User: Which sequence fits this backbone?
């Protein structure tokens, strides 16, 4: 199992209510309905959330956030509300909350292969594939294994509910480190160089060693990392297109920082603009450069992996785009 320590939901049936809150973070009425439900379960988060919403509406002092996990306080908007207050952006509260999206922050920690179960969530190491399956390849060479997610585990997060409910989702990419070429859409792109494999639940999985022609230049499998997943809300990288915001530094303080992230917004480090392919696309996952994994997408770049929203809803993962920046 991944080290899942910052999930928002802790009670049976709670995730549905949290998903409704995260679907429209600006709607305080939904939060109060959720607070009533927490009251019915004698959960101290209920009275706190009600006091917090009331104080936010009235512009009075916010109560100290002394209940709930970090992930819970983020997904219900407590953390974002506090940041708005501290940077003088409360006049734009509703507008900012309306663009907030649920996301899952991912942090890595080196682990021993023996301590991670076959079929569990991990970055790096050896992939878990159905018994007898070959290592994924493109026309150039074997693909580099990046990550795999136990979808039943991700289903416990708010944003992860957009993915299939069970099975294993594995990410592979062609990457020639010497030429800085990978399976992207531009001039360095390699046909077949991006692969997402969704293995249905119930398949017999085994850890697969790379083939003999898997060279160092293709990214020899690093030692595996276990994952810590944290629920939360994400906002756009900047207030570009929002002329009423003249304090870009204050806006940037709202951005949620994570090593890697599922869903949410693109946060570039080098590119001058958002590389999302179009309005019908969304970020599926962001893989950061990571010393724990010896990953480097250019000079400290990130690898943004996009999917069409319609394909995500249909559970289709065979036509995706990855861009570094």
Assistant:
């Amino acid at each position: 199992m991944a080290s899942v320590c910052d999930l928002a939901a802790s009670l049976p049936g709670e995730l549905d209510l949290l998903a409704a809150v995260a679907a429209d973070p600006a709607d305080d009425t939904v939060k109060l309905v959720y607070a009533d439900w927490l009251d019915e379960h004698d959960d101290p988060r209920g009275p706190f959330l009600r006091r917090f919403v009331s104080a936010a509406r009235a512009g009075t002092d916010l109560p100290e956030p002394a209940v709930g996990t970090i992930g819970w306080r983020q997904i219900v908007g407590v953390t974002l509300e506090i940041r708005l207050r501290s940077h003088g952006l409360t006049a734009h509260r509703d507008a900012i909350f309306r663009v907030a999206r649920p996301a899952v922050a991912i942090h890595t920690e080196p682990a021993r292969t023996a301590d991670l179960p076959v079929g569990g969530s991990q970055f790096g190491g050896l992939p878990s594939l159905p018994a007898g399956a070959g290592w994924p390849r493109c026309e150039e060479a074997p693909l580099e294994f990046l990550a795999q997610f136990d979808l039943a585990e991700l289903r416990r997060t708010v944003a992860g509910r957009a993915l299939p409910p069970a099975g294993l989702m594995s990410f592979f990419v062609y990457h020639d480190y010497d030429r800085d070429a990978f399976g992207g859409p531009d001039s360095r792109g390699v046909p077949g160089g991006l692969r997402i494999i969704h293995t249905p639940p119930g398949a017999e999985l085994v850890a697969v060693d790379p083939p003999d022609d898997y060279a160092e230049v293709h990214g020899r499998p690093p030692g595996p990392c276990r994952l810590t997943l944290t629920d939360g809300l994400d906002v756009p990288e900047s207030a570009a297109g929002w002329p009423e915001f003249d304090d870009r530094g204050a806006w940037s303080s709202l951005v949620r920082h994570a090593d890697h992230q599922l869903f949410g917004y693109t946060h570039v480090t080098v590119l001058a603009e958002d590389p999302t392919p179009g309005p019908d696309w969304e970020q599926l996952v962001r893989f950061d450069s990571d010393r724990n994994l010896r990953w480097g997408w250019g000079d400290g770049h990130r690898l943004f992996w996009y999917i069409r929203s319609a394909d995500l809803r249909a559970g289709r993962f065979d036509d995706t785009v990855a861009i570094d920046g």
The longest helix spans residues 45-58.
